[in-house]
Specification:
about 170 residues, mainly alpha
């Protein structure tokens, strides 16, 4: 990947991220985790977690994803009555699973009864905003430029109706 030095290079990064990672991988992974957790399918969730380790598209994000996922999973530890959480946490702690952040996010949507489509759109917006603000902080860009970029990329995301293809 090329370094982000200006708004245009960030725009290219965001476009590539949406096309190569977010839409084809992350959102479907969240959906799959959501489905497994909502059905209490812990073994299937762990098997899916292990399968993601073989995805070459995730190599550059693997360490960060697993660090974030493990951190978020630790925050769910107090939910002792949630069997799925406790079994997945045990699998992660024993290195039988990796703790991908997308899977933990899908789990969190189920645990807190959040609608899947709303959660997917929120994830896409939150991630896009995070990339924009991280780049802007390092380069002291104007807030108005950041807001315009966020609007550009979030209006190009599949909305409520467009996410149906991702959700199925």
């Amino acid at each position: 990947t090329r370094p982000i030095t200006n708004i245009e290079s960030l725009r290219k990064f965001l476009q590539a991220y949406q096309e190569r990672i977010l839409l084809p991988h992350e959102l479907p992974y969240i959906r799959t985790a959501y489905t497994h957790v909502s059905r209490n399918e812990v073994r299937e969730l762990i098997a899916f977690d292990q399968q993601l380790a073989t995805e070459s598209a995730l190599n550059s994000f693997a360490a960060a994803s697993q660090r974030i996922g493990r951190d978020q999973l630790q925050k769910l530890r107090p939910l002792r009555d949630e069997r799925v959480v406790q079994r997945y946490l045990a699998a992660v702690e024993s290195d039988q699973a990796h703790g991908w952040h997308t899977l933990v996010y899908g789990m969190t949507l189920v645990l807190y009864s959040l609608p899947l489509r709303q959660g997917l759109l929120g994830y896409a917006q939150q991630t896009t905003r995070g990339f924009i603000h991280a780049a802007a902080r390092a380069r002291s860009w104007k807030e108005s430029d950041c807001a315009a970029l966020f609007t550009e990329f979030c209006t190009s995301l599949p909305g409520e109706q467009g996410l149906v293809g991702v959700v199925r």
